[in-house]
Amino acid sequence: MSYAIKEMFITLQGEGAQTGRTSVFCRFTGCNLWSGREQDRDTAACRFCDTDFIGTNGEGGGRFKTAELLAEALEACWSRTVKNTGQRYVVFTGGEPLLQLDDALIQAVKAFGFEIAVETNGTIIAPHGVDWICVSPKPDSKLIQTQGSELKLVYPQKELSPEMFDTLDFKHFWLQPMDGPNRFENTQKAVAFCLANPRWRLSLQTHKMIGIP
Ligand SMILES: C[S@@+](CC[C@H](N)C(=O)[O-])C[C@H]1O[C@@H](n2cnc3c(N)ncnc32)[C@H](O)[C@@H]1O
Ligand SMILES: Nc1nc2[nH]cc(C(=O)O)c2c(=O)[nH]1
Ligand code: SF4
Ligand SMILES: [Mg+2]
Question: Does 25 qualify as catalytic in the annotation?
Fold first, then answer.
C-alpha cells in the first residue's frame, strides 16, 4: 500500500496530555468527514476544521510507495533536529490518519524505535500497536473507537455534549475550545464547563499561542 502525506514536521505536541512533548507529526492527506474544500465546508459532517489536508505539497509531503520509505523519512526528519536518540515519538494525524495507517507502517516505525500516537475522529478502529490514542468525536458520524488514552472534545458543538462521552473508556477527558471567530467566547464556555465538571479538563492549542507548527 502507498501513503499520501500532506506534510511532516518536528514540533512540540500542542494539545492534550502529551503537550510539550517533542514529536514528529505525520499529516496524512484526506478525511472521511470533509473534502477539505471551502465550498464543501457547510455541508460536511465536520465543519470547523482548522487544517489544510489536501494534496501532498506541504513540507516533507509526498507519496510514499512503501511503509519502509515513509518510516525512513520520519526517522530522517526526527534525526535532523533531535540530537538525543531515545524517546522517538510520531503523531499520525491528518486529515483522518486511520484511513491509511496500517500494520505495515506501524511495524516499520516501531523498527526505528518510535512510540506511536494517533489523532483520530473515532470513526475507524485503530490498528493494534498504537501506543497513544486521542479520539476527537465529530457530529454526523458514528463513533466506533470508544476506548483510548484521551478523549478531546472540541467545544462547544450544538450536536455533541460532554455528557455523551464521559462514561467511555478513556484515561483523560478534555474540552478544547473551538478555534475560529468565536475562540474567546468558546474558551470562556469551556472554562465554565470544566469548573462545574472537574472530570473534564481544558486543552488549549498551545502551539498556536507560541507560533510553532
Ligand atoms: C485536524 S484534526 C486531525 C485528526 C482527526 N481527523 C480528528 O479530527 O481528530 C486534529 C485535532 O484538531 C482538532 N480541531 C480541528 N479543528 C479545530 C478547531 N477549529 N478548534 C479546535 N480544535 C480543532 C480536532 O478535533 C482534532 O482533535
Ligand atoms: N503542535 C501541534 N500539536 C498538535 N496536536 C494535534 C495537532 C493536529 O493537527 O493533529 C497538532 C498540530 O498541528 N500541531
Ligand atoms: S475529522 Fe479531523 S481532519 Fe477531518 S475535517 Fe474534522 S477536524 Fe478536520
Ligand atoms: Mg492542528
Answer: yes
Say if residue 206's pLDDT is above 90: yes
Q: Which grid cell is 126?
A: 485503530
Q: Which atom of ligand 3 is nearest to the CA of 53?
A: 3
Q: Is 140 left (phi over 0), alpha (psi -120 to 50) or beta?
A: left
> How far apart (Å, rounded) are the C-alpha atoms in residues 62 and 198?
43
| Distance (Å) from CA 81 to ligand 1 centroid | 26
Best CA proximity match to 57, nearest among 20, 33, 27: 27
Domain 3-210 has CATH 3.30.70.360: no
62 labeled part of a ligand binding site: no
* Contacts (Cβ under 8 Å, ≥6 apart) of 125: 98, 144, 145
At residue 157, φ and ψ (nearest 5 deg) are -130, 135
Tens-digit pLDDT profile for residues 137-172: 999 999 999 999 999 999 999 999 999 999 999 999
Atom of ligand 1 nearest to the CA of 94: 3
Report domain extents, the chain: 3-210
> Nearest-CA neighbor of 165 among 157, 19, 184, 186?
157
Quote the ligand 3 centre to 48 CA distance (angstroms): 8
Q: 206 Cβ partners below 8 Å, 6+ apart?
A: 12, 14, 15, 19, 20
Reported pTM: 0.99
**Amino acid at the residue 111:** A
- Cell, residue 199: 472530570
The response to whether 86 counts as a known ligand-binding position is no
